[in-house]
Amino acid sequence: MNKIKITDTSLRDGHQSLWATRMTTNDMIPVLEKMDNVGYHSLEVWGGATFDVCIRYLNEDPWERLRIIRENVKKTKLQMLLRGQSLVGYSHYPDDLVYRFIDKSAENGIDVFRVFDALNDIRNLETCMKAVKKTDRHAQACVVYTVSPVHTMQHFVDTALQLKDMGADSICIKDMAGLLSPYVSYELVKALKEQVGLPVQLHTHYIGGLAVVSCIKAAEAGVDIIDTASVPMAFGSSQPPVETIVRALQGSPLDTGLNLHDLFDIANHFEQLRKHKGFERGVTRISDMKVFEHQVPGGMISNLVAQLEEQKASDRLDEVLGEIPRVRKDLGYPPLVTPTSQIIGIQAVLNILMGERYKLCPGEVKDYIRGLYGKPPAPIDPNVKEKIIGDEPVIQGRPADLLPPVWEKARQEMQGISEVEEDILTYALFPQVALKFFEYRQERSNEDVPQMLAVEEVIKEAEIKEEIINKPLPRIRKKAVNMGDEEMNLNELRELILLLDQTNISDLEVQKDDFRISLRKNPAGDNQTSLAQAVSPLQQPAARPDRVNDKLVEVLSPMVGTFYAAPSPDAPPFVRVGEQVKKGQTLCIVEAMKLMNEIKSEYDGTITEIAVENAEPVEFDQVLFIIEKD
């Protein structure tokens, strides 16, 4: 038996699963050298949702993050998660973009590309595998694990054999929902080792509580590498804790050789970060145990909760979780991993919120049914298909064969904004979001404010903070020194701030006679987010004037999201004031839950008013258009 190697996922899937991917680059910098010295097989640091979140929520350049990590991690391989033909996005991209993205990712520091297709449709991995092999980096191909009538042991082995023929250097069992039971884990690893003959890595999630035992059984069956996370970012919907796996295998022929003291030193950094930002620990709740019924992966559950809160419908989570298996069956049992997890998840949300199944379907759901994501594992329910796309044809070939090259077009559209290839790639992947980020970055540049602190400054700041944290917490004196009893001593104020920073207390109010001070800690976010919230209060739906009658009707937003008047930045708007529209015609797009939802007219008529500006946020039930019916 060989010693088990460990990949750490804390800097990618760990915080994606538990912290909504909100760890900033500055949060990572102080611990990178320690992680590099532990002896991990690799560090998963990029890909998945990190790219999107960097530009959409953190106002960070994901390419700059990768370069900084590479500069500070000199010995350990860096790994990323690549969604096959979808790269780090949510829909398929043309081959020319795939080649350029992978080439630039390798150039900026990625050593191991873990590639997967949500449907296990290997046609969607052909270009990715060729592109990775062209860079001379390690191509790790995934077998996406799930449970359904069509996902048998032979299906997984056959998929792995085809991936080997495509040039895979290793195979990863990607169990994104934590469904892999210990004995199936043993059987699957053993079958892959014996019949495929490539190194095997196991990626699983703790959510249902099976992960640690499944990892141990996989190790006994001959698995080569196991994914884990540092304990503050483990458990719950994340990976199993590295500390537990290391201790469980210690002294056996499978001993990882990692030092627990070093691992706890790293864990201390992440634990202080967790407390400081107000993130919760990974825990397994009763609703999480229901993963064996609804099969919703960890990252998807945290996203569903956030999405329902955004739609002011968090009390309907159980209904959505109950709807997901029904939608999944209707659509041919796709595994619930990005992007199909978003497709199934948002359709389940809309089915519940609309009160009618498939009344509103995002463009991505329609594209999935048209075959533009690949071939579903099982046939789609014909009645559902007819309701959503009618008698439209379904493509039979590789979806990307239908996509024209996009690189040159994106480069031309970026003229005057940036000629940097990484920026052009970012724009080609997320046009609307990228333009907002570039605008923000330019404004910051004009203010002569660095986007991120220098590495040395971040490390120094972290050392000072750690020194403060390790000091005994001083007691707050009841009586001020050299000041009147009715005033607060400055030292007492410092002690209160320290108390707030070192504990889970988020609000603190102290009153002494007529003097009162209130302190509040910023929860689960960074300073940029707080500032934005402070200066940009949430837009409320405008009060509706009395402007409707038998002829005039309002078109309302069915959800909270962002209003887009056109299908892309360079395209004309769907409609203009004064134009005639037909029933079923697309009026606009409301982007919600990372998917584009086409809003269609329910009447023949004329647009008399467009009540929202392009790219503006909209609330549920907010007026978007006024139509005069024919």
Characterize the structure shown:
Pathway: Lipid metabolism; fatty acid biosynthesis. GO terms for molecular function: acetyl-CoA carboxylase activity; pyruvate carboxylase activity. This is Aldolase-type TIM barrel. It comes from Syntrophomonas zehnderi OL-4. 42% of the residues lie in helices and 15% in strands. The protein folds into four domains: 5-277, TIM Barrel, CATH 3.20.20; 286-401, Cyclin A, domain 1; 404-443, no CATH class; 552-629, OB fold (Dihydrolipoamide Acetyltransferase, E2P), CATH 2.40.50.100. It has 24 helices and 18 strands. It has 630 residues and is an alpha/beta fold. It has an eight-stranded parallel barrel with strand order 1-2-3-4-5-6-7-8, surrounded by six helices.
**Taking Cα atoms only, what radius of gyration do you get, to the nearest Å?**
26 Å
Q: Overall mean pLDDT score?
A: 87
Helical residues, percent: 40-55%
The CATH architecture of the largest domain = Alpha-Beta Barrel
Shape: globular
User: Beta-strand percentage?
Assistant: 5-15%
Q: Count of DSSP E strands?
A: 18
Pfam family, one: PYC_OADA
GO biological process, one term: gluconeogenesis
Keywords: Biotin, Fatty acid biosynthesis, Fatty acid metabolism, Lipid biosynthesis, Lipid metabolism
Organism: Syntrophomonas zehnderi OL-4
Topology:
Elements: E1 5-8, H1 10-18, H2 25-38, E2 42-47, H3 50-58, H4 62-72, E3 77-82, H5 95-108, E4 112-115, H6 126-135, E5 138-144, H7 153-165, E6 170-175, H8 182-195, E7 200-204, H9 211-221, E8 225-228, H10 242-249, H11 260-277, H12 286-289, H13 291-294, H14 298-310, H15 317-330, H16 340-354, H17 363-369, H18 382-389, H19 407-413, H20 421-429, H21 431-446, H22 455-470, H23 490-502, E9 507-512, E10 515-520, H24 527-535, E11 552-556, E12 561-564, E13 580-581, E14 586-592, E15 595-600, E16 605-610, E17 617-618, E18 623-629
Parallel strand pairs: 1-2, 1-8, 2-3, 3-4, 4-5, 5-6, 6-7, 7-8
Antiparallel strand pairs: 9-10, 11-18, 12-14, 12-17, 13-16, 14-15, 16-18
